[in-house]
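Progress note, project year one: complex with G3I.
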Amino acid sequence: MSFTRRSLLAAFAGLPFAPSALASAQTVGLGELAARSGRYFGSAVTRDDVSDAGPHLRLFDGECSVWVPTWQMKWGALVPTLGDVPDYRACDAIVASAAKRGKRLRGHALIWHEHLPAGAERLSTAADWRRFVAPHITAVAGRYRDAVFEWDVVNEAIEPYDGGADFMRRTPFYAMLGSDYVAEAFRLAEEAAPLARLYLNDDHLYYAEEWQERRRAGMLGLLERLLKAGVPIHGLGMQCHLDTRLHFDDSVFRRFLKRIEDLGLNISITELDVTEAPNARGRSISRRRLRAAAEAEKVLSVAFDSPALAGVVTWGLSDDDSWLRNRGPDMVDNQGLPYDDAYRSAPLRDTLASLFASTQTRHPT
Ligand code: G3I
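Model obtained:
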């Protein structure tokens, strides 16, 4: 693995002789560092994280310029059972806290095949779309049109192994409108929230693995079809749930990002964290944290070279709250976020700081 100045900076970042540039970066919040580089930094948050009584509110406030509701904006969280009256209280609380603290909100996600209202999994006709889905998109995007600057309009539309020639995931939305559901969702979102940047969000697009190559092909094909049809889409959200077990080849990822740039789209990293526990192989916790930071630096340094990169969101700030730790017995102590279980800064935080501090976007914001 070749070492760049930046990777050396990042690799030693957690050690006592952190270079002065980095030392100052640790006193300045990641959101501020990102803004100085022409980008944004944020985190997924829950209602408790950002309530006045939130035990770590100071961290979510001090580190983030952007917040993303972890699940509270999803259809199933707003409408537990199809036909229910939506319950916006949790969302409204996050929106109010964001307004109070000057945070911008990424909306996540208007359309996703998971966390659906009970009964929505049976929807299958265009009439179902008109009766349930279209009003949902219009209502939520409209309600938060002044609070959400960037929406994940559709999440995880690609699944090459669902058997379709279009490499698209067969979901209830696909059953209702075929592949047109994506374009229709974006058009409805633009109508309801004309100022928001509208993103297609997905995962597993970064590693030199055959199954990810198929996903990249599916994603590029879908994006090209949407743009050719004049669909109002502004960016690709790459979740970046990274994994130390997978093979990375920077030229492969760089080539993919160049294709996205050539389409004129923004890129955002929308759910960054690192899975490292399953192949930790007896390494100490501190070595594992450095290894997670190095994995992030390896992948993100390519993304940070892209003029299209608009921002980075981590999927939480502390390992203590990470969804990854619920993914199996070998994941219970995964070290994959910028802060550890005790909310102490981890090397991944320094990696992000050094990436923001050592690069300037070439993106004409
Ligand atoms: O604790 C609350 C409970 O108080 C509340 O009454 C209940 C109502 O639904 O929800 C409970 O919280 C759960 C929450 O996780 C915290 O554990 C939600 O039920 C549960 O749905 C939620 O799961 C989230 C999941 O998306 C589904 O929305 C995960 O936190 C979240 O990490 C995960 O995030 C997804 C992204 O949206 C898309 N990319 C993959 C990523 C990981 O699966």
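DSSP finds 13 helices and nine strands in the chain.
Residues 183 and 229 are 8 Å apart (CA to CA).
No further modelling is planned for this target in the current period.
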